[in-house]
Amino acid sequence: MALRAPRRPSSSRPEAVTTYVKRNPLLAVFIFATCVWLVLGFWNGHGVASYYGWAVFAILGTKLGLSLIPPRQWDPAPADLRVGVVITAYNEDPSYLSACLDSLLAQTRPADRIIVVDDCSTNLEGHRLAQRYARSHPSVTPVRHTANAGKRQALATGFDELQGQVDVFLCVDSDTILEINAVEEGLAPFSDPRTTATTGVVVVANHESNLLTRLIDVRYINAFVGERAAYSRLGSVLCVCGSLAFYRADVVLRHLDEFLEQTFLGQVATVGDDRHLTNWCLTEGRVVLAENAIAHTAAPQRWGHYIRQQTRWGRSFFRESLWVLRHRSPRILAWWLTLVELAQWLVFSSILVYIVIVHPLITGYFLLGEYLLFVAVMAMARSVRYFDVKRVNQSRSSRLHSFMVTPVYGYLAIFVMAPLRLWSLLTLRTSVWGTRDKGVEVRASSVSSTLRTAGRPAEVPDPRIDGPEVPVGTAPGLVSDARDTRRAVAV
């Protein structure tokens, strides 16, 4: 029988935790019900639009109800469960990478190994920083690609390094800062042998930088404690977030060749890695959300960065959704959930065209004003669980401020996101990182000092001080044929 760590009461958490989730179902239900009452009063009697309003709130209400069901209290993961971290980096601010490594080294459940893969950034500062961490911490191994190959290949390099040494892969981005207990909490669902992957709650580190980061923060929290929490109750989270993704190593390695060789419309796929790995994990078991595993990530602060990111994510959404519908069986719940998500987008786009173009031509009456009101209230209804995420460095007024600007995100979804999704659909063959191609996008100066010092900082030299290069060899194991030359690392 596998050894188990002593069970810790679910209500306890380390004092160093800066962010946590605390459900407030009465507040969420009250706000949601108020939104329903406001909107349906306007929509009743508008035919198709009225039915659409009822359908939207039926779906949102179902997701809210599922997300408010108390999550399962997992036993601690077996004490002998080995975990290896893969950090993928490309043109990252070294200060973010340093904070990421500090947070990993300060975990209540330390990782057995940490692989830092630099995908041939335009400068060596981040790679040299990882080398200096490696001198002070034997668990850290820096690797650098000789050519930019994309995040998927960067992950594969890390998997190669860890092959046969760990039971769980933890994949994080180089701008991810973990709460001190994130690894411990993220591993807990693996106490159930049916669990093949987990994700945690990812929130925005620079959420108070400007209006855009506030909007993204609200959207992130809704996506995790709302949508992913709902699907987690069904064991079918559709996408394990790449900022904080736990996978059973044997599942990933069984499908690694397919993961690397995936093509779409004749083009090799290099993005959409997290969603594709999730699809394989859903094939073999359950994918769930660990609500107490929390991480912070850097959100785009400029519109250009945000648009490139969303375009890339849109391509991943369409490609992987179509892959599921084509290659997976309707006998698994994830197939039907994927169909619902695609249908929602199609219906949303069709209704927008109907309201803006078709309805005025038929009736001579323009519904745009009512529709904009509907979108504003719907955005607030989708975000009712924003208040369930507590930050020690965020005041109540700041949380209220962020929630009150959610209607702006609704309009963003109409006037920016909808066209971007369509553009993503039309450019599905494009496979690039999409962000940071011209250098660092977000600086760590936008993150509060409370967050940067959440854990016990590792004692390493200042990242601005140069040090000698540490030779790194080619990863053992799966590097065996022509396609793997893209994963070669610098020596």
UniProtKB/TrEMBL annotation:
EC number(s) per entry: 2.4.1.212
Family per record: Belongs to the NodC/HAS family.
General function of this protein: Glycosaminoglycan synthesis. The hyaluronic acid capsule is involved in the pathogenicity of group A Streptococci; it may be the major virulence determinant.
Location(s), subcellular: Cell membrane
UniProt KW keywords: Cell membrane, Glycosyltransferase, Membrane, Transferase, Transmembrane, Transmembrane helix
Reaction equations catalysed: N-acetyl-beta-D-glucosaminyl-(1->4)-[hyaluronan](n) + UDP-alpha-D-glucuronate = [hyaluronan](n+1) + UDP + H(+); [hyaluronan](n) + UDP-N-acetyl-alpha-D-glucosamine = N-acetyl-beta-D-glucosaminyl-(1->4)-[hyaluronan](n) + UDP + H(+)
PANTHER family named among the record's database cross-references: HYALURONAN SYNTHASE, MANNURONAN SYNTHASE
Pfam families assigned to the protein according to its UniProt record, in alphabetical order: Glycos_transf_2 (PF00535)
A Gene Ontology term for the protein's cellular component: plasma membrane
Gene3D superfamilies (UniProt xref): Spore Coat Polysaccharide Biosynthesis Protein SpsA, Chain A
Tagged with keyword Repressor: no
MF GO annotations: hyaluronan synthase activity
Disordered as annotated region, ranges: 452-476
Protein name from the UniProt record: Hyaluronan synthase
Enzyme type, top EC level: transferase
Stretches that traverse the bilayer: 26-45, 51-69, 333-356, 362-381, 402-423
Pathways involved: Glycan biosynthesis; hyaluronan biosynthesis
GO aspect biological process, one term: hyaluronan biosynthetic process
Domain Glycosyltransferase 2-like: 85-252
Chief place of localization: membrane
